From TrEMBL:
Pfam families: adh_short. This is SDR family oxidoreductase. InterPro entries: KR_dom (IPR057326), NAD(P)-bd_dom_sf (IPR036291), SDR_fam (IPR002347). Keywords: Oxidoreductase. The keyword Heme does not apply. One of its GO terms (molecular function) is oxidoreductase activity. It is an enzyme of class 1 (oxidoreductase). It comes from Pseudarthrobacter quantipunctorum. Belongs to the short-chain dehydrogenases/reductases (SDR) family.
């Protein structure tokens, strides 16, 4: 096992093969972190890593406990510790109201967005407890939908509301171990997932109309995550909301 110097921090980023996860991983590497890139598609993870010497590519399905344990074991074998987890892997799920969604689709969305986040947080907390008094920091990727759902997104909205409870519980239970947990709720970054809900062409609104919504660069969202990660151990950022300027969030409906 390699011991990591205290000045070099080790981060795990899930969903690192695309979107916000990819950009966060790249910005962390540029900032001097050692970063484990986790996701289901190895080729995309390698593209994110771009042969960086401090990047560790670990294919992982966060819904599988064995995969998650393998991920964190690989990180500890390589660098000896875990300082930051960006709990980012997620799916938007089906476009359906509660009376239309199938049980299969409901369970699949919860498995990734909620159970997967719990499994990764649990593994990170176990690693961080072994590092007392240094502890560590967990950043959960929530969503604007943790505050105000979009129409026909029942499974996604429920998981993101539940993420807030997970965040607060981890923060509370981690206090005695130097472990902090915060949540970033991001609205309308310019990523592929926005295309799936039609933000650029006309997203469904609460009144049944469709509206082209503004987006903002994924690099700016990643900078907000990095700000949370870079806070000193004496401070914990519990909640951050970052949206595209002018998106229908405040006053949505």
């Amino acid at each position: 096992m390699n011991n990591t110097p205290s000045a070099v921090r080790v981060a795990v980023v899930t969903g690192a093969g695309s979107g916000i996860g990819r950009e966060v991983a790249r910005q962390m590497l540029a900032a001097g972190y050692r970063v484990a890139l986790a996701g289901r598609r190895e080729a995309q993870l390698k593209e994110t890593a771009d042969d960086h010497p401090e990047a560790l590519v670990v294919p992982c399905d966060v819904t599988r406990q064995d995969d998650v344990e393998h991920l964190f074991d690989a990180v500890r074998r390589r660098w000896g510790r875990v300082d930051v987890l960006f709990n980012n892997a997620g799916v938007f799920g089906p476009a359906a109201s509660v009376d239309e969604i199938s049980l299969e689709d409901w369970n699949a969305t919860l498995a990734v967005n909620l159970t997967g986040s719990m499994l990764c947080a649990a593994a990170a907390v176990r690693a961080m407890k072994a590092q007392v008094p240094q502890g560590g920091r967990i950043i959960n990727n929530g969503s604007i939908s943790a505050h105000s759902p979009r129409p026909r997104t029942v499974a996604y909205a429920v998981t993101k509301h539940a993420m807030t409870g997970l965040t607060k519980s981890i923060e509370l239970d981690g206090r005695g171990f130097g472990i902090t947990c915060g949540q970033i709720d991001i609205g309308n970054t310019a990523t592929d997932i926005m295309d799936t809900i039609g933000v650029g062409a006309g997203a469904l609104q609460a009144d049944g109309s469709r509206r082209v919504e503004p987006t903002f660069p994924v690099e700016d969202a990643a900078r907000a995550v990095l700000m949370m990660a870079n806070m000193p151990p004496s401070a914990s950022v519990g909640s951050v909301v970052v949206t595209a300027t002018g998106m229908p969030f405040i006053g949505r409906g």
